[in-house]
Amino acid sequence: MSQPKLWTWPFIFLILANLFTFMSFQMLLPNLPPYIESIGGSSLQVGLITTTFAFAAIIIRPFIGHLLMTRPRKILVLIGAISLLVMTALYPITQVVVILLIIRFIHGIAWGWSTTVNGTAAVDLVPRRRVGEGMGYFGLSVTVGMIMAPSLGIYLYQNYSFNLLVGIAVALGLIAILLFSITSFVTPEQVYKNQENPPRFSFTGSLIEKRSWYPALVTILNTFGYGSVVTYIVIFGNEQGLSGTFLFYFFNAVFATITRPITGRYFDKNGPWKLIMICSILSFSAMWVLALASSNVHLIIAGAIFGIGFGSMMPALQAWVISKTTTERSGIANGMYYSSIDLGIGSSAFILGFIYQFVETATLFKLSSFLFLLVLLLTILDYRKQTEPWVAPE
What we know:
This protein is about 80% helix and about 0% strand. It is mainly alpha-helical and about 400 residues long. It starts with 8 loop residues before the first helix and ends in a 10-residue tail after the last helix. The mean pLDDT is about 85. Its main location: membrane.
């Protein structure tokens, strides 16, 4: 049986546009805390602004999931991209923390909107039989953006100014809008052709896709472990006198990029279970290499292993979430997947922030590593319940 075509111009444009969207956003992320402090904000206010952003992103997604059933994809994508651009441009204008909190809340709404719509648009363009491979490639735009942009943003902020940083972030956002505007999207009528009338809005029904709750739970646990890395690796490097924490991110990105096409095809052929089992073991191992690191070589090794493990697991989890539901509910399932990421990272920052008062940073990595073993256990339990061979969704 011949494989349905994956690489179309709309899919390529969407990947590139999503890359620029993530780069524009991620450039700001590590620089907002020092900027907030520079305008008189406290550490408590820094944490509050972070929490507010995550909360806003989560609460908007159910509404977006419902809108995806009735509104054209292109309009929704452009609303998200333009909103992100406007909110990014507003950061240097205010020197008042309370106003910055409001901006960050609205920015969170725009981010929740954009990630849900863009991810769902990608699902629409990917053949169902190649969803693992297709979402693996789409996920590269997220991975590369998350790795490249923070380093570039830190360099611009430390060597030039916050205003220049925001200016370049806005320019990247403009490129994303241009690419989105020339991309052809699937219409709601094509996606929901088997439904005469879309269901009425329900907050709970649009927040949770019941058929996908299990892989969403696994995603929360998986990103909890990841949250410890993104929150504390720079602090850990300073404590250990390691100057090459960027090497962890670099090799993480390289190996995630190399393995993503292979693991995506494996998912489509064999399903999620064995792939996630292997990746969870690799992620657990990488956390311990990182916790015990005493040189930059150890950071490189940890980054490479984590890139293969965690880097392959995230698109597999997204594809698993999507494969459990129907085409009509894919937007809601995709929104639940991204909300699971926000919940995992957000709860990690909150819980580990409390534990950090009593233990060393390396201990946080060790404790977080056991979340990946819990991911392994839950995946094994679900695998043992399967009574029929995996068949890629049509």
